[in-house]
Amino acid sequence: MITAEQQTRWQERQLAALTPPHRGPDSGDLLERVRQQARASLPDQPVLNRKQEAWRYTSVDKLLAQTYAAPRHREELGEADIAGYDLPELDGYRLVFHNGQCLPKLARLDGLPQGAIAGSLRACLSTDGGLISRHLGQQAGLEGNLFTALNGSLIDNGLLLHIGAGVELDRPIQIVHISEGLGQAVVSQPRHLIVLEAGARATVVEHFVGQDADGYFHNNLAEIVLGEHAALEHYRLQDEGDASYHLSSLYLQLQAASLYRGTALSFGGAWARTDYKVAFAGEAASCDLSGLYTAGDEQLNDIHLDVRHNLPRCTSRERFKGIAHGQGHAVFDGRVLVERDAQRSDARLKNDNLMLSRKAMIDTKPQLEIYADDVVCSHGTTVGQIEPDQLFYLRSRGIGPATALRMLCQGFAGEIVEDMDSEPLREHAYARLSSILDNAGQTE
User: Fold this and answer.
1) In Å, what is the CA distance from 357 to each residue of 29, 74, 213, 326?
2) Which segments of 283-360 are extended strands (E)?
3) HSE on the CB side for 121, CA within 13 Å?
4) Helix and strand tally (H, E) in the chain?
5) Comparing C-alpha atoms, which of 206, 128, 208, 210 is closest to residue 173?
6) Which of 128, 361, 366, 407 lies 20 to 30 Å from 74 when distance is taken between CA atoms?
């Protein structure tokens, strides 16, 4: 188990190895302010061991045993290099990041509506510094953990997506995140800022991919702000390399009558964790979180939710499904808090899990804390196996065992996948799930 001394030594090594050179005033004072605030908070961050409830099931021992180097960036990447990662069927706008750095030559932004900005956070400092200053670091704050503080301490680049008041993106925008160590263990820490002003609407598709052989660490943090009556459809496809570590920390602020719909498909990585932290900043806002996650041999996949109803008449829906096979370890930890003044809140939390192996492990902990008396709230969880009668029924009709297993698992996942509005994304999700199940082998 990690001790305070071990965690402190690791963070000091990482700061020494990863601190970027001073870039002068043009980079600068804004990002430097965030860096200094985050660094000042590092000594106060809790030790990430089993004594911390939020990290009880998520060991960081192997992660902190590795010292990561700063990544190199391949500016020469072309269309052929990303052909296997792009989702051209989406027919949308596109930005490509390699190890946290934006590659402008691979962008597809022609026709982006007036009032919309999409690009590199660093590149936008000179033209949109006021916008960035108003929002950067405001949602994440300093009450995070070692990794969110490290992200802030080393902030250098990331995504800026700003949709002006009343502007609607006519097509989805795809963000492709490519990570690779290029022969060494590296850490990339992009910082993303997504702001939709009042009445704005957009669809964002993020795709996280990487090379299997490289034991890199992708530590991204996103701050998402929705103005009054704004609506964001946000899809996240996590398909990192088999030896990688992936941590996504999402901080959401929802103004009055805004709508956030987030769908997370988490399949890759040796160690993967997604954290959602939701804050309502206006009445009648709505947050819909859903996801599908899988965990196979030598793999941990972890979903954490912290949804706080602190204002009246807000709605939240949390629906997540997990499939564990081999010796995989899946974790779901969802907390919904309804505070005393959050009357007429509507919160419903559900988590269902399917175990395909007796050696698989699933830890699930849905939590609902209610301090208001005029609410509609529910929560529940299930953990089960494939019913033998269901397999027998399909086998008796000439369907092979692998195909029968795949059909039953896809039926289990269908509640999440079919709720996605994009047909290309649904097809991608089913194809990826089929590939995972084909490699999972027979149930035990």
Assistant:
1) 53, 40, 26, 6
2) 286-295, 300-309, 315-324, 329-338, 346-355
3) 26
4) 8, 20
5) 206
6) 128
Q: Give the global pTM.
A: 0.94
Contact 412, 384 (CB under 8 A): no
Look at residue 21 in the predicted model and tell me its pLDDT: 62
Sequence-separated (6 or more) residues with CB below 8 Å from residue 127: none
Closest-CA residue to 372 (of 347, 345, 349, 348): 345
Provide, for the chain, the percentages of residues in helix, strand and coil under a 3-state DSSP scheme, each rounded to the nearest 5: 25, 35, 35
Give me the phi and psi of 403, to 5 degrees please. -65, -40
H or E stretch covering 224 = strand 217-226
Band (pLDDT 50/70/90 cuts) for residue 181 is confident
* Structure-token match 């192997």, residue found: 62
Q: Residue 28: what pLDDT?
A: 54
Q: What average pLDDT is seen over the chain?
A: 91
Helix or strand (DSSP H, E) at 17 = helix 4-18
Angle between helices 401-417 and 423-440 (to 10 degrees): 140
Residue 298 pLDDT: 85
Strands 173-179 and 93-98: parallel
Name the nearest CA neighbour of 90 among 171, 169, 161: 171
Retrieve residue 249's tokens. Answer: 């920390």
Mean pLDDT, to the nearest integer, of 26-39? 77
User: Taking residues 72-84, what's their average pLDDT?
Assistant: 85
Nearest residue to 28 via CA among 130, 141, 126:
126
Are 313 and 285 spatial neighbours (Cβ–Cβ below 8 Å)? no
Q: What angle do CA 9, 12, 14 make, to 5 degrees?
A: 110
User: Is there a contact between 198 and 228 (Cβ–Cβ < 8 Å)?
Assistant: yes
Predicted confidence (pLDDT) at residue 27 exceeds the cutoff of 70? no
pLDDT band at 22 (very low <50, low <70, confident <90, very high): low
Q: Which of 47-61, 286-300, 385-399 has the lowest mean pLDDT?
A: 385-399
